[in-house]
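Methods, example record. To illustrate the input and output format used throughout this study, we show the complete record for Flavin reductase (DIM6/NTAB) family NADH-FMN oxidoreductase RutF. The sequence lines were provided to the predictor; the line carrying structure tokens was produced by it.
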Amino acid sequence: MISIDPEKLSLKENYKFLTGSIIPRPIAFVSTLSEEGTLNAAPFSYFNALTANPPLIAISIGRKDGVQKDTSRNAAAKGEFVVHIPDESYIEAVNQTAANLPPDESEVDLAKLTPVDSLKVKVPGIAEANIRMECVVEQIIPLGGTPEKPATDLLIGRVVHYHISGELYENGRINAEKLRPVGRLAGTNYTKLGETFALNRPE
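The corresponding predicted structure is encoded as:
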């Protein structure tokens, strides 16, 4: 076993250990509206559920030299966003939205994805997604870095509406094999669902 002190590592080295160890990571494909009305979208792989009471999800959105990304800035301004679960059917388009575009250019247009109206928020969703969750902002917490230049924004959203493809919905549950979700690994690598197995919790 190799023992390593993270304080003796560079930012890049810590990033490689974290992203190479915490795998596979679910991906949040997030759409937001700018104050000028541009529909932005981007994928984030520091993402998970927090609680079901109420349904809260969290996404860590890294800053660049302390400057917020479009997603954080838009979510803070509008108070809402939509999270989609990427799957094999449109993952290449999701990857295209990671391009570094100016705030007034839409990644949705770039990737040739299809906007669809939401029911409870003003931010459109993406029609290609088999699961999308309309969210309102619960909290946005700056973390890491320095007080003047935080490293990331922890975006916590409360789910106010689910949209689930009928092909996936089975007796109140989602069929993971039919969803065909895509997870993030290190570098440019991704993973598919693969083999699954069950373990009963001990009494």
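Annotations derived from this record:
The chain has five helices and 13 strands.
The mean pLDDT is 96.
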